[in-house]
Amino acid sequence: MTDTIVAVATPSGESALAIIRISGKACKNIISQCFSNPSPTPRYSYLSEYKNNQGENIDQVIWCYYENNKSFTGEEMLEISCHGNHFIIDEILQDILSLEVRVAEPGEFTKRAFLSNKIDLVQAEAIAGIISAKSAKEAKLSKKNLEGNLTNRIAKLQSNILNALSRVEAFLDFPEDDLGESQSQSIISEITDSHRNISNLTSAYHRNRKLLSKKVIALIGSPNAGKSTLFNCIIGYDRSIVSSELGTTRDYISQDIMINDHRVNLVDTAGLRESQDIIESTGVQNTLTQIEKADLIILVLDVSAPYPSELSSYIKNILNRKKIIIVENKNDLKRKISNILYPECFCVLNISAKDQKGIKDIIAAITKCLEDDTNKNCTIDILINLRQHNCLINACKSLEKAKILLEDEDYLIAATEIRESLHQIGEIIGQTDNEAMLDRLFKNFCIGK
């Protein structure tokens, strides 16, 4: 980490401001040459003209210097806020690169913070998680990890496992002091408790993966029930073709949207009915596939027509396993439908998609359904990523082996397995020297972070 590195820390494109971030021992030299200030006050913002190595004024900027050991990376740092025109940014960047500075690799600022012990590996990954979060919930969970939520749990696990290991190793060092059945059972109990706690964390990975994933919502119903009109109303523009002709939608159309704080893939499907048309029949089969995939079904019915009897034959075996919102559309027309044949559902809403009446009620019902699932599934308020999950699984396997070996009084091999579990848990927060793993991890970060 002897090189001084530089990168633009804000997204590319025109903007009011851009931030250029520099870390390394050349910071003071840059400040002296570009701002004529050989002794900057740390953590103090200066308004200055940026002068290049030819003495030309490039831009009026605000800059701030951070001293060694008191910056994000643990090194001397300099952050320059300039105007967000890419010509200005490039000119400043090229000038800095001429002063014994190189372009930072992806994630190198965060990697330096980790190697300087400013943050652990969980916190480093949490920073990337906050940046890439697709919802407020995901960002909140990542922020908790940055604050030490997962790290503290890992530290407690390490302490408990280390305590069990020390007792086993004490016996190995002094075999004349027989462990005895009560001591042996006490160690096995500690290992069992640790295994259970790790298993709870691995379960959190699967629950939160489901919780934070994009939810699929399928609009289904008979042809000309108003599915496409409703689809367009929900997404906010005309994405799906609307026509009075039956069977206009012959394949499904989908759109990713946010409904309040929920990521949603909304799917407009082909109308469900018997047809001799090969293309339309294929569309119906695609609809049935989308129903199987969906987390939530919106069944759109035309209230001006009788309940379509053939609809039940298509969906009766599927809808019993799905959460359904029934939307009675076209309430501006005379009602002919009867609700006797309606499947069991979350709620029934009466709307007119053509007049955009009742759309807010649908959004509210969707939100309520998704939030109910969130509250049901989010029993552990912690975020575990795939890398961390794999380490936990490996630690579990080692503890399982250790427990069997302890029961068989094979203490030497049991100690080896317990040490391996500690090694796997240590990899979560970065206590092991695994350079290849670190390189892979930080290369997935954005440049400038």
Q: How is this fold's topology laid out?
A:
Blueprint: E1 4-8, E2 15-23, H1 27-35, E3 45-51, E4 57-66, E5 77-84, H2 86-97, E6 101-103, H3 108-115, H4 121-132, H5 136-146, H6 149-173, H7 180-212, E7 215-221, H8 227-235, E8 253-259, E9 262-268, H9 278-293, E10 296-302, H10 309-319, E11 323-329, E12 347-350, H11 359-377, H12 386-407, H13 411-429, H14 435-443
Parallel strand pairs: 1-6, 7-9, 7-10, 10-11, 11-12
Antiparallel strand pairs: 1-2, 2-5, 3-4, 4-5, 8-9
Essential attributes:
14 helices; 3 domains; 6-stranded mixed beta sheet; 48% helix; 449 residues; Rossmann fold; 18% strand; Four Helix Bundle (Hemerythrin (Met), subunit A); alpha/beta; Gyrase A, domain 2
The portion of residues forming beta strands comes to 15-25%
Helicity range: 40-55%
Determine the CATH superfamily of the largest domain.
Answer: P-loop containing nucleotide triphosphate hydrolases
What is the count of helical runs?
A: 14
Low-confidence stretches: none
Query: Class by helix and strand content?
Result: alpha/beta
Compute the number of strand runs: 12
- Compute the gyration radius: what is it? 30 Å
What strand line-up does the widest sheet have?
3-4-5-2-1-6
Shape: flat
Q: Biggest sheet, open or closed, and with what strands and sense?
A: 6 strands, mixed
The H/E string reads EEHEEEHEHHHHHEHEEHEHEEHHHH
Architecture of the largest domain in CATH? 3-Layer(aba) Sandwich
In CATH terms, what is the fold-level topology of the largest domain? Rossmann fold
Number of domains: 3
